[in-house]
Amino acid sequence: MLSSDQATQHEPQLPAPQEQILRHFQPQLDELHQQHQLSPPRLNAEAATALLWLIEKPKPCHSIRPHKKTRTGCYKCKARRVKCDEARPTCGSCKLRKAKCVYPVPAGSSSTLPFTTASALDASPSVSTASYPLVRGVSPIGSSSSSSATFTGEHTLVLNAHPFFTQPLWHPSNIDAADMKLLWFYTTSTSSSFSVTGPGNPMDDLLKGRVVQVAFETPFLMDALFSLAYLHMHNLNQKYEPSRALGYRARFLQGYRRAVETAASETYVAVLASALFLTVLSSQAFREENSQELYILDWMVVWRGIGIIVDQMGVENMLDTDMYPLFERPAIDLGASTTSIPNHLLFMVSSIRPDDPDYPNIPIYLDTLKYLGSLYMNLKEGFSPVMNLRIISWFTFLPRHFISLAQQRQPRALVILAYYAAFLKLIKSIWWLKGVGERSLNDLCNYLGSEWALLLFVPQAARAVDDELDLARVILQDPNWVSARPSHLQLDSCSPITLVDDAGKRLRWNRSERKVIVLDSSETVIWNQ
């Protein structure tokens, strides 16, 4: 591999974002397609980036063809092998076909050509439609003191020697050194905070790659990445700027709210990623002494917001974005999990009298207890990364009526949440879950008081222990329980994690038919309402 100094000497400084690069080099890419039998013939952004260095290498001289050939027509006409009338800014053929008309970059252009998203790509000033390449090993670089959330104006592209990439390379001129440091921290550290199975899985790759690309196109998502990085640094007791962190967070929330209200298809990916990031950003309140009591009730609404966003855009549209690995969950056998529900919780629900105002809610409580039973059933098998994901994603399965009951502070709903909070306390390896279980156990037990003390003996005992093994024994009410497998086992740890519906059944997305197929049975897909 070339060193950074060697890369500077030998590699070209490319002038435009990746979309413009693809257009500029499409003839050479077509030639490479013929030589190397690449598929598909129109290279995607990542494949094009990997080939840019190959394209720009000195090539052997060939004799010039005896006939003249115009090279001033637009790319669309060249691809269709039709004569271009070369009208500007849109030729007659593209205007008739309502296609985006792009002309070749004139020869002799400066290697740091200014690029304005609005004029070059017909994009709005605040949201660029360009794609941005990513490479490994980029150091924070600053070129401007501005920290504006709108990425327009001049941009500079810096190439690393290695063609394969996991970290952001595209550097807008109005992102300063502090911003680039945050982005570097996000890609090297914070992005892995969402994966329970470590690096190298589809979710981790998305968070380091596609999400960062979209963030350069969507300012509020970039503000979310900066906010996450600052929060992570704060929880690691690293030095950071609180006022700047608050500014990023405020801009993110404002932009995210506007995007949700607008529901424009071009921001779907950014909104999906932001819905996930918001669960982490909002977890900080659990670690603040002055936050409101029973904050877990607000946090569960944030988690269910992911489902609301998916409903708003449509499940099929979400799957078409290829972002669904961010929301994959372990499958659940609800039938089998029923046998693992603690008996005293079943009695709490089954003993509700017909004259009790809570009587109509019995089916809701029983459905929710099935999901809680799945945690008990899988914990009996031992600690594992997938067990952690089951705990983290539990809120995303819950019936929405149960969330309403919890928001109304119905005691039985809060008792169920107290038992779930004991599971949250089991997770020690994820920084943004630190204190969530402990704080929730204290809040719920203190709020319910002595009237419900007999039903809260497990949550109360869980408050008193911190060791992972001791806590699991308290939850399972088995003083002799031992984990069947070590908690650090990573072998094939991703295999149970897939796309599932709200009944825990495994799904497969048939893209050609735009249809979600249930793999575990012939039943229909279930989404909790």
From TrEMBL:
InterPro entries listed in its UniProt record: Sterol_Uptake_Regulator, Zn2-C6_fun-type_DNA-bd_sf, Zn2Cys6_DnaBD
Q: Which UniProt keywords apply?
A: Nucleus
Q: Where is the Zn(2)-C6 fungal-type domain?
A: 73-103
PROSITE patterns for the chain: ZN2_CY6_FUNGAL_1, ZN2_CY6_FUNGAL_2
Which species is listed as the source? Fusarium austroafricanum
The organism's place on the tree of life at top rank: Eukaryota
Pfam families, per this entry? Answer: Zn_clus
Q: Name one GO molecular function term.
A: DNA-binding transcription activator activity, RNA polymerase II-specific
Instruction: Report if keyword Nucleus is assigned.
Output: yes
Q: Which SMART domains match?
A: GAL4
Protein name (database record): Sterol regulatory element-binding protein ECM22
